[in-house]
Amino acid sequence: MGLSYEGCNFLRQRLVLSTLSGKRVRIKNIRSKEDDPGLRDFEASFIRLLDKVTNGSRIEINQTGTVLSYQPGLLYGGSIEHDCNPQRSIGYYLEALLMLAPFMKMALKATLRGVTNDPNDPTIDLLKTTAVPLMKRFGIDGEGFDLRVVKRGMAPGGGGEVVLSCPIRRTLKPVQLTEQAKIKRIRGVAYSVRVSPQMANRIVESTRAVLNQFIPDIYIYTDHMKGANSGKSPGFGLTLVAETQNGCFLGAEMSSTPQGQGDPILPEDLGRNCAKLLLEEIYRGGCVDSSNQSLALLLMTLGQQDVSKVLLGPLSAYTIEFLRHVRDFFQVMFKIEVQKPLEDERKGGDKVLMTCVGVGYSNINKTIK
Hints:
Belongs to the RNA 3'-terminal cyclase family. Type 2 subfamily. 28% of the residues lie in helices and 28% in strands. The chain is α+β, with helices and mostly antiparallel strands. A hairpin with a 6-residue loop joins strand 4 (58-61) and strand 5. The two termini are 34 Å apart.
């Protein structure tokens, strides 16, 4: 008997966990009260992507799109291409794909096309600089692990292209990330497409004005893509990543307002605001930043039958819901300890130490040599 849920929220979480655990899932009342009921185009596109990476999935959607039932197949992988819906950025699809990629039958090489940077979803640059090193901690590494931007495409037009290649792993290592270390360096990428290349330099200047007060080791690359590689819409943005002494990465980012969707933002303000977002993220602290909390918790759950511990900043609402779903699909409960730093420690906000024993998930496709 599968699990049953209501509503359109957390669709990705439910489908990803269903695919990994092999449990059937049925979601009803998807926007049933709205004028335009049912699944949105970007969700349908996500379901099609899941269909491409699995083998034998059964997906049934009723006439109005308000009920979805999903019987997961085996994760197959291999070489796939997918045109993502421009309503959401590629980051929306990639976040879920990163959760599934290590457990495929064949190493995954996915080419995704669409919007690479928009204000709502994590951009590719952020995933590359925070999610990828986090996965390496769990033993998902090797030559073949790579995420690269071939073409940038800003919202709303898109036209970007991203290639993810990820090796497969039989099992994951348990991790102990319990130390909150000091920040040793800040790196970043200021990108601009179809606007003056000077925009990126203006972003860098205003960002450095804020961050230079705290740390000297700051290097922000400027990335200006031209011609065919610049997508269809103009825009600019910034991704910042702070690296701690024990090799944890905390990231923050901002993108310019998409063309024709509200008040435009000055590059100077964008740089300043993004620097403040990074400082906020560092204040929240922990070993994993707020956008990757659920990825870390999933990899802990799927680890070997051994104890994993990770120190996080305050849990986001998305992460809390993710923990409930992990309990439903894998019957794993986390031990949650709140740690309040002392006044004089200067360690930022309250921290949460998450502890769990992995379910000993092993990739059934990977034959034993």
